[in-house]
Amino acid sequence: MTGPTVKLVPTPSIADARAGIRHVFVRDLELLTSIGVHDHERKATQRVRINLDLAVFEGDRDLGDDLDNVVCYEQIASAVRDVCRKGHINLVETMAEEISSVCLVSSPKVRSVLVRVEKLDVFDDVSSVGVEIERFNPEV
Description:
Number of domains: 1
Shape: globular
CATH class: Alpha Beta
Number of strands: 4
Helix content: 10-25%
CATH architecture: 2-Layer Sandwich
Distance between the termini: 53 Å
Strand content: 25-35%
CATH topology: GTP Cyclohydrolase I, domain 2
């Protein structure tokens, strides 16, 4: 008998030296949040897993080893936590849209964001269900 199979999700190729794009990411952020359309989902929080991939314009400026010169993944993760704490959301699609919005407004350097939101405890025989979206900065 063999052990359980693990499905690997490939990391998207976002970094692009020719275009001056850096890949900033947040992996497997697990939070408890109020989400879902069913009555029982409104009565208890659920675990969600969130993954983010941001395409960030580097520019030609030296970073100077200064946090002010980059997109801070700590601030991004904190903004995502705030979305999940603000109150009940019916759909994972809505949550993904709200997360993409906070990522895109976090810095004018963010060109695009790929957001994956997974509900982890919906079905006993499924590891997760959810949605993945990609959004672009309309100002760029």
